[in-house]
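Marked as duplicate of an earlier ticket. Keeping the data here for the record.
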Amino acid sequence: MLPADHRLTDPGSFRRATKLGRRSGSRLLVTHLLLAEDAEQRPAQVGFVVSRAVGSAVRRNRVKRRLRHAMRDLVALLPPAAVLVVRAQPAAASSSSAELAADLDRCLRRSLAHAPSARVAR
């Protein structure tokens, strides 16, 4: 499970990250990475968006649990004070944990590779 201090819960941060963050997508996921201008000592935060298009509440919760589990190992890659929003596509409902983890890793690394050109939060 993803530690509580790494969970993104502020709606304003979700909006800023999706609007200003570096976007990277795949068949299963879309990630938005927003780097903070001042790298404070707060930990990186990760939020998940799984809409009704993914499926029933049971499927959506399963996808969220799988994503949180996969992110637990990847959160160390994020710089301090970064905000990452992971949005699940409808195809995520029928994918395995390994496929979700691989796509999350690929999207995150792609966003981090382009991080210097990402817009910075204020």
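See parent ticket for discussion. The radius of gyration is 13 Å.
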